[in-house]
Design goal:
The chain has 204 residues and is of the alpha+beta class. The protein is built from eight helices and five strands, in the order H-E-E-H-E-H-H-E-E-H-H-H-H. It is elongated, with a radius of gyration of 27 Å.
């Protein structure tokens, strides 16, 4: 049909692109005017069968756009080099959902990349990627704020001063061990309190 494998009811009622290509059977497929249409589910199927003319041209409120979003794999992203990620690699969905606040700028994942309108966007997770795939026009033209977070740079903890190394590498483990020790309250009558603590924490 004129909507390919997208649900015309979802597009008309929610203005969402619902991909029905994953349904390999004809369970939610309807024929109208010698064309076949795939529907998202039983509810959409019933709505289409009741008033099919409302969801197809020329009366449908939304037709399938020329530019459609497409999930791309890591291998496909590599083949696009040197094409850069749009939105500086941040997830546009989390930013919009976070009311476009600075704190809502979240780096996207290379496992959740979508090609849309000749631009490559990376999303935070499966949920945000699905939201982008359904309504990419809500997010792709969102402008970035003037102020951006500093770039994340991997820090080798072994190059830190001893205090910084201890804080980054073993602080949590030591705090957890001391908390556990205070809860357990071990007592060794032949040892000093310091030796008892060191023995419990396995410090020699």
């Amino acid at each position: 049909g004129e909507f390919s494998h997208f649900c015309p009811v979802s597009l008309a009622t929610k203005h969402e692109l619902v991909d029905c290509s994953f349904e390999t059977t004809m369970k939610f497929t309807a024929e109208y005017r010698a064309r076949y249409y795939k529907l998202a589910g039983q509810k959409e199927m019933d709505m289409f069968l009741a008033e099919a003319h409302k969801y197809v041209s020329p009366t449908a409120p939304h037709m399938l756009p020329d530019s459609l979003p497409k999930y791309v794999t890591k291998a496909e992203v590599k083949q696009m080099f040197p094409k850069e990620l749009a939105f500086r690699g941040y997830c546009p969905v989390t930013y919009v959902l976070g009311h476009k606040r600075y704190e809502a700028l979240t780096p996207g994942s290379r496992d959740h990349v979508v090609l849309y309108d000749d631009e490559v966007f990376s999303m935070l997770d499966d949920k945000t990627m699905e939201m982008f795939l359904r309504q990419p026009w809500k997010y792709n033209r969102t402008p970035l704020p003037a102020k951006l977070p500093p770039p994340r740079v991997a820090q080798d903890v072994t190059s830190l001063p001893m205090l910084g190394y201890m804080e980054q590498a073993v602080a949590k483990a030591i705090i957890a061990s001391m908390t556990s020790c205070s809860d357990f309250k071990p007592k060794y009558h032949t040892s000093t309190p310091t030796n008892q603590l060191c023995s419990t924490l396995d410090i020699t």
